[in-house]
Each structure stands twice: as C-alpha cells, then as structure tokens.
Amino acid sequence: MTGKNATEMLQPDGAGIARAAEILQRGGLVAVPTETVYGLAARADNADAVARIYNAKGRPSFNPLIVHVAELAAAARLARLDDRAEKLAAHFWPGPLTLVLPLREDAGLAGAVTAGLPTLALRVPDHPTMQSLLRVLDGPVAAPSANASETVSPTSVDHVLKTLDGRIDAVIDAGATQRGLESTIVALRPDGSWNLLRAGPVGTEAIAAVLGSPPAGASSGVEAPGQLERHYAPGKPVRLDARSAREGEFLLGFASVGGDWQLSGSGDLAEAAARLYAGLHAAAEANAPRIAVAPIPDEGLGVAINDRLRRAAA
Ligand code: AMP
Ligand code: MG
Questions:
Q1: Could you tell me whether strands 170-172 and 39-43 are parallel, antiparallel, or unpaired per DSSP bridges?
Q2: With 0-12 CB in 10 A as exposed, 13-18 as middle and 19+ as buried, what is 266?
Q3: Inter-axis angle of helices 301-313 and 269-285, to 10 degrees?
Q4: Is ligand 1 within 6 A of the CB of residue 227?
Q5: pLDDT digits over 32-58, tens only?
Q6: Residues with Cβ < 8 Å from 84, sequence gap 6 or more?
Q7: Considering the entire predicted model, what is its pTM?
C-alpha cells in the first residue's frame, strides 16, 4: 500500500541521523530503531507533527504516546520526578522502562501527546542510533510503535513498511531490534503506590525490589488504552498452549514443541521475546488460515510474552 509520497530509507550512520533530524525538525515522521520495537518518531512539542502520528497509524486520539528523551535531566524538564522515579531511572535508564509521572505545566508538549491527561509517559531508550538522534535533536520525541494501530508491532524495517510505506517520511534501518517487546510501563502515584500498566522486558519483581513495595492492584484499562484487548492482532484466529498443530494451523514452536517457525528451540525466553513479533508476522503471511502457539512458561520474560500472546488471541 504505497501512498503517493515515497518513504526514504536511511542508514544508522551520521548522514542518516542528520537527515532524520532534519525531517523531524520540520514536523515530519521517521520510523526509528529502539531496543524494544521500531518507533514512529515526531517532535513531541510540535502539534502538527504529533497529529501526523495519529493519522499515519490510524490511532485513536484517546491513546496517549510515550515521550523519549536522551537522559534524566531532559525527563525532569517535562515531568515531576520524585525519589522513586529517580531510583527507577538510576536502575533502568537507559532501558525498556516507561514511567508515567505528573506532567509539568510548562513542559511545552503538544496536548495530543498525553491525550489531555495530567500525566506523561517517559522513557530514555537504550539504542545507539536513537540516542544519537535524540542528542542531535535536543528535544522530546513522541514515538509509539511504528505500525498501523491494532496490528502486530514492528521489530524490523520490513514490518514497518508493511503498514506504513508511503505514509511516513523516512525509516532508519538498523536491523532487527534486540528486545522485541514494548517497554514495561509503570505509573507512580502521588499517594506513594504504583501500578504496572504494561508488562515488558523489565520484570515486576525487579521494580518492586527497587521501590521496596509490590504494585497496587491492576489499574483501570481506561488509562492505558494500549492495554485494550485488540492490540497486536495478527488478523487470524490464534490458539495458545498448543503442543502440536491442528489442520490449517501455522505453529509457532518453543523449546521441545517444534513448529513451522521456532521462537526458541533451546527454550530461551529472551530469544523468544526478540523473535515473537517476527513469528506473528510470518504466521500472518503464511497460507494457513489459523495460528497456534506453543506453551510459554509464565515466568520472567514469559509474563510479558504471554501478555502479548493473550492480546493477539483475543
Ligand atoms: P505504544 O503504542 O506501544 O507506544 O503504547 C504506549 C502505551 O503507553 C499505551 O498503552 C498508552 O496508553 C500508554 N500511555 C502513554 N501515556 C500514558 C499516560 N499518561 N498514562 C497512562 N498510560 C499512558
Ligand atoms: Mg503499539
């Protein structure tokens, strides 16, 4: 589905990063690699640019965006970081942890970034290309996953182009992303409690250990619409906990369960996380009308993998 404007392909080198920065500074959209999945970047302080993100993705306007900055000091100019936020940042930034914090009134962000909420989701990504880009830009970047809303997230440039070719100005090709799952999202509440809004590469136990308290009960789904059931949909029925393929199924294997496509033959959860979306993309493109997925242990990274699989199956 190529639109009338071609999407420029950029390399993750000095020239590519400079070109990406130029496009972003004039309000354009660039798909960028992060350690989690490819993000669709726009200047978060440019209302027209942010509107283009929602447009290109077909994303509902009530679903707020994560803002990416190069370092803690830049985060502190946009949101109020208390002791807990600083501790988490010290442990996990740069890295795949997003913090939902009180928005500063003088942050200067486009209102659509937070969908009008008084809170802001912030992250310092750990990818050399994204880090360089953020430093060149010297400004906040909104970046949801670089795919059409409700489709499987992109972990390669091929995945990005599948739904956004011709709809965005450029993409930086830095190969397959390393983690493969979207960031863990934690909301720090003014009353001292915290909630896990999205499971991800940073485990709940690790966060609880730093904060010295377990999460408060699950928060309402209204606040984090990315948690809506029909996210990550491959467009075919998905059956979980499958030990073998039934007729018409494309099986994603894990450990001793072989399949049409292996998430990890050795049963390595980090490898399975990194390969999960590529597997779902492959399954979506296969001739088989249905998808089956081998059981994934519900521990460590398996919690986040199973969270995404349940949504893919919903
Ligand atoms: P993604 O499309 O993967 O970037 O999803 C971003 C996620 O962050 C979605 O689940 C959003 O609902 C969530 N999010 C962003 N901003 C906020 C916020 N201020 N409060 C709660 N959740 C947020
Ligand atoms: Mg997404």
A1: unpaired
A2: exposed
A3: 20
A4: yes
A5: 999 999 999 999 999 999 999 999 999
A6: 188, 192, 194, 211
A7: 0.94
Cα(129) to ligand 2 centroid in Å equals 20
Sign of CA pseudo-dihedral 145, 146, 149, 153 = negative
Please give the structure tokens belonging to residue 151. Answer: 């489709």
Q: Dump pLDDT digits (tens) for 176-220.
A: 999 999 999 999 999 999 999 999 999 999 999 999 999 997 654
pLDDT confidence of residue 1: 40
- What type of residue is 221? G
Indicate the fold that domain 8-211 takes in CATH.
DHBP synthase (3.90.870)
Distance in Å, CA 60 to ligand 2 centroid: 12
Could you give the CA distance from residue 40 to residue 216 in angstroms, rounded to a whole number?
31
**Cα dihedral 75, 76, 80, 81 sign:** positive
Amino acid at 188: L
- Give the ligand 1 atom nearest the CA of 103: 19
For ligand 1, pick from 101, 184, 197 the residue to mutate: most ligand atoms within 8 Å of CB: 197
Ligand 2 centroid to 256 CA: how many Å? 30
Mutate which of 182, 185, 186 for ligand 1 pocket (most atoms within 8 A of beta carbon): 185
Q: What pLDDT digit, counting tens, does each position of 59-71 carry?
A: 988 899 999 999 9
At residue 2, does pLDDT exceed 50?
no
Q: Where in the chain is the domain with CATH 3.90.870.10?
A: 8-211
Instruction: Give residue 227's pLDDT band: very low, low, confident or very high (50, 70, 90).
Output: low
Dist. CA 288 → ligand 1 center (Å): 33
Residue 98, H or E segment: strand 97-102
Taking the centre of ligand 1 as the mean of its atom positions, its distance from the CA of residue 185, in whole angstroms, is 8
Q: Residue 233 gets which letter from DSSP?
A: B
